[in-house]
Amino acid sequence: MIKAFDNFEVWFVTGAQLLYGGDAVVQVDGHSNEMVAGMNASGLLPVKVVYKGTANSSEEVLDVMSRAEADPRCIGVITWMHTFSPAKMWIHGLQRLSKPLLHLHTQYNAEIPWETMDMDFMNLNQSAHGDREFGHILSRMRKNHKTVVGYWKDPATLGHIAVWQRVAAAWADAQDMRILRIGDQMNNVAVTDGDKVEAEMRLGYHVDYVPFSEVLQYFKQVQDADVDALVAKYNSIYDTSQVLHDDGRTSIWNAAKAELTLRALLVDHKAKGFTTNFDDLGDVDVQISGMGFDQIPGLASQRLMAEGYGFGAEGDWKSAALYRTVWFMTQGLPEGCSFLEDYTLNFDGERSAILQAHMLEVCPLIADAKPKLEVHWLGIGVRKNLTARLVFTSKTGPGVTATVVDMGNRFRLVVNDVECIKSKPLPKLPVASALWIPMPSFEVGAGAWILAGGTHHSIFSYDLTPEYWEDYAEIAGIEMLHISKDTTIENFKRELRINEVYYMLNKALK
Ligand code: MN
Predict the structure, then answer these.
(1) Whose C-alpha in 57, 246, 387, 440 is 20 to 30 A from the C-alpha of 408?
(2) Rounded CA gap, 313 and 185, in Å?
(3) pLDDT digit string (tens) for 340-363?
(4) For residue 1, is pLDDT > 60?
(5) Confidence of residue 284 (pLDDT cuts 50, 70, 90)
(6) Of 70, 63, 73, the residue nearest 93 (C-alpha)
């Protein structure tokens, strides 16, 4: 369905046993084949499911899980117990499996065949209790997994599997994700920093420092003709009617050169994301030496985000990685995602809202119309200069925003359902923006986010639902706090206190 996921597979393993004879296993195999073919043919699953046969013993379970673990195409395993499958035989295989696991509680037949059902049927179709036995060993082993309950043809059941597949795909993508960090965290900001060693151990991605002197090596190699071609492309895809003066055109040309520089750097390093630091843009005397960016590379960041490169401003490497993950999960979905910052509050009773923007770096995938490419003076950072940027307001409608913070002993994912409402033009602040009401209200939504220690930066998506984040937190084994229409401050504070104890004890339990 979606080309980006074509290289991935999810394996389907059916649990059975030989107690009822080889004929029963042959039937189990036939049913499983039919079910997997039906699931693939539904058009509802973004990643192909590959049936890997029945597992009837501890040796067979260990074998298939070892192969799943070793095969780079396999991004996760779905298990289903057609017959009763004594769960001690799953222990060693489940210990071997570190990839995402989904336990599907379903049944081959939808309805009970009241008139014809006999003991042979009962011995074959045992998932009602077989899946409970399997669920027990998952609980007993404290094995992170997703449980999906429902008939295998039901679009709702397939929808839950599809969400998990997208998250599993993004998880696989994160395991070799390299984030280039151009400069360090800016201005001693705490919330955007954290333990990069723990991030690699827990979340998979690697964060790598790149000195600006290395960026300059790429900058020097950019050809003028390539810059000219990129500027022509800008003119064809964006509304550039605001840029009438020569200084503006020069500024756009320099912004295009910055984009080509960063793109070459990212490609060469096989990186999937980057951070910038607006105090570290090359030679201090760039106007004389020509060695460096003459402006903050905001337009480049906007355009690279739209292509799927993770981006975090001011050295925010956790946001860069999370953006890449969100973009990867949502490939082929229609509404878009962006890095955003809580910018300014608008108190208006029950419609109180937060303007979401950034100095420049908002992804055009969330734009409600064709973005305008504009050039304006920007008087912040080491380069106070004319600066190119895409200007737009976002679509309206519901979405979800998320951030990861480092709590010292764990990563905490904070998720907030939000409602994007109509924003107004900002004639004196020409940046891209969204305007949203956090659920359940500005007062409670913003209050809970602040109590949770959430960042001022977050990664927003119209296409994700909280279920994606639940699956992500489950796979990663990190804390998740979800601020929704049902949140109250009283309950939220209780959850924070309970989680504090849970995560202290969690390692002892495993
Ligand atoms: Mn910022």
Answers:
(1) 440
(2) 9
(3) 999 999 999 999 999 999 999 999
(4) no
(5) confident
(6) 63
Give residue 507's pLDDT band: very low, low, confident or very high (50, 70, 90): low
C-alpha 315 to ligand 1 mean position (Å): 9
User: Which residues have CB under 8 Å from 107's CB, separation 6+?
Assistant: 125, 127, 128, 151, 152
Cα 393 to averaged position of ligand 1 atoms, centre (Å): 18
Class of domain 3-174: alpha beta
Average pLDDT, stretch 298-316? Answer: 97
**Could you report the per-residue pLDDT of 437-476, keeping only the tens digit for each?**
999 999 999 999 999 999 999 999 999 999 999 999 999 9
**CB atoms near residue 175 (< 10 Å):** 14
Going by C-alpha positions, the residue among 366, 322, 338, 334 that lies closest to residue 167 is 322
How far apart CA 361 and CA 303 sit, in angstroms, is 9
Q: Is residue 278 within 8 Å of 253, Cβ to Cβ? A: no
140 CA → ligand 1 middle, Å: 43
CA 28 to centroid of ligand 1, rounded, Å = 55
Using alpha carbons, select from 403, 404, 310 the residue that is nearest to residue 363: 310
pLDDT(87) > 80? yes
Do 401 and 415 form a contact (C-beta atoms < 8 A)?
A: yes
Residue 420 C-beta-side C-alpha neighbours within 13 Å: 26
Ligand 1 centre distance from Cα of residue 166 (Å): 28
| Cα→Cα distances 353→348, 445, 476, Å | 7, 10, 32
Give the distance (Å) from ligand 1 centre to CA of residue 314. 6
Listed as own residue / partner, the contacts of 238-242 with beta carbons closer than 8 Å and 24 or more positions apart are 238/370, 238/371, 238/372, 238/373, 238/390, 239/370, 239/371, 239/372, 239/373, 240/372, 240/373, 241/372, 242/372, 242/373, 242/374, 242/375
Dist. CA 297 → ligand 1 center (Å): 14
CA atoms within 13 A on the CB side of 428: 0
How far away, in angstroms, is 302 Cα from ligand 1 center?
14
Q: Output the DSSP codes for 449-490.
A: HHHTT--SEEEEESS--HHHHHHHHHHHT-EEEEE-TT--HH
Domain ranges of the chain: 3-174, 178-509
In angstroms, what is the span from residue 69 Cα to ligand 1's centroid? 39
Q: What one-character DSSP code corresponds to residue 348?
A: B
- For residue 2, is pLDDT > 60? no
- pTM for the model: 0.96
Per DSSP, the three-state class of 289 is helix
Rounded Cα distance, 286 and 272, in Å: 28
Burial of 133 (C-beta count, 10 Å sphere; 0-12/13-18/19+): middle
Q: HSE (CB half, 13 Å, CA atoms) of 439?
A: 19
Residue 391: half-sphere exposure toward Cβ, Cα within 13 Å: 20
- How much distance in Å is there from the Cα of 312 to the middle of ligand 1? 8
